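User: Can you recover a sequence for this backbone? Please restate the input before giving your answer.

Assistant: Of course. Working from this structure:
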């Protein structure tokens, strides 16, 4: 493994922000899920709603937790055995989870008690072949902790490959993998530099698919999140809605909270879009930008709260070491 050398306070704040920002967006958007989009003059409240208590995150954050825990233990996400253990954690969690994405539940239901990366990929392919599609947004929502494993110099290609492999554990279709590659690299860049850039990561895709993704970003940058064409349950539309919120908030000089509120205004899959936006916006603004009242309430499976996520993120940055230096 390649440790991140001597991370600065701002670097660490941004790394933790990729995790807490996503959880905050998730909890903010949960009460608005599957509801119509909101106009700008209707406030977005951090509140309870539906099956979700105040500050409770959904499957978006819960599915990221086993990835984060693996990195915090110093395990290599490049290792197939590590990825298999993550799938086993998902399988156990899904038994009594409040909410599991339709596509993810179908994949997990095909697995036996003997879980491996190979079995998960085969199940994901079987679901794709049966339904004819598998480019839901369920793998894009869990990219934050993947990026934390590859923050050291020269880790871009390894991150791109691993982000795609972890996506393919549940989502076979290429669009899902492409979205995860782009978003993971953008999170990595934001943590390392504090800058937001969605164009350069597109260069990690095969050349024949780059123009298509640049066109998707063009649409996002000229369109409000609620006006993105297509269902934001589709990975491309979810990525576009999340980037639209980030891009327009940046143009308006707005911080993390207003960015997440913009994301929630998209309607429909609000928690997932806001969780996706929160991972990247949090990586740019830092954990310190998460409103303190929100942070005090954040909680969810498996009995974790914001402080627990922070500690796991700090360990992930240090690749499992409790000390600042390796």
């Amino acid at each position: 493994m390649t440790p991140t050398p001597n991370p600065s306070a701002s670097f660490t704040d941004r790394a933790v922000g990729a995790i807490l920002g996503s959880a905050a967006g998730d909890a903010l958007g949960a009460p608005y899920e599957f509801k119509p989009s909101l106009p700008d003059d209707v406030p977005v409240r951090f509140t309870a709603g539906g099956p979700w208590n105040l500050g409770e995150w959904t499957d978006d954050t819960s599915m990221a937790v086993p990835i984060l825990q693996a990195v915090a233990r110093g395990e290599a996400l490049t290792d197939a055995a590590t990825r298999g253990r993550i799938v086993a954690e998902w399988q156990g969690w899904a038994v009594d989870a409040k909410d599991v994405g339709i596509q993810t539940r179908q994949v997990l239901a095909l697995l036996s008690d003997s879980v491996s990366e190979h079995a998960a990929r085969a199940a994901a392919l079987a679901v794709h072949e049966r339904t004819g599609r598998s480019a839901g947004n369920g793998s894009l929502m869990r990219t934050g902790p993947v990026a934390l494993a590859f923050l050291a110099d020269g880790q871009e290609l390894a991150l791109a490959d691993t982000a795609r492999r972890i996506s393919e554990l549940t989502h076979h279709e290429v669009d899902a993998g492409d979205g995860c590659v782009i978003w993971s690299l953008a999170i990595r860049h934001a943590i390392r530099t504090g800058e937001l850039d969605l164009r350069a990561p597109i260069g990690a895709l095969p050349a024949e698919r780059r123009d298509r993704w640049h066109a998707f970003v063009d649409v996002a940058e000229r369109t409000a999140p609620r006006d993105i064409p297509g269902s934001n349950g589709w990975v491309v539309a979810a990525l576009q809605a999340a980037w639209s919120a980030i891009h327009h908030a940046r143009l308006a000089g707005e911080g993390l909270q207003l960015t997440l509120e913009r994301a929630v205004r998209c309607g429909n899959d609000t928690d997932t879009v806001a969780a996706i936006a929160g991972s990247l916006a949090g990586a740019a603004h830092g954990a310190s930008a998460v409103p303190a009242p929100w942070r005090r309430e954040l909680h969810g499976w498996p009995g974790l709260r914001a402080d627990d996520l922070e500690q796991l993120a700090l360990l992930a940055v240090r690749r499992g070491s409790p000390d600042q230096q390796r």
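That completes the design. The chain has 15 helices and two strands.
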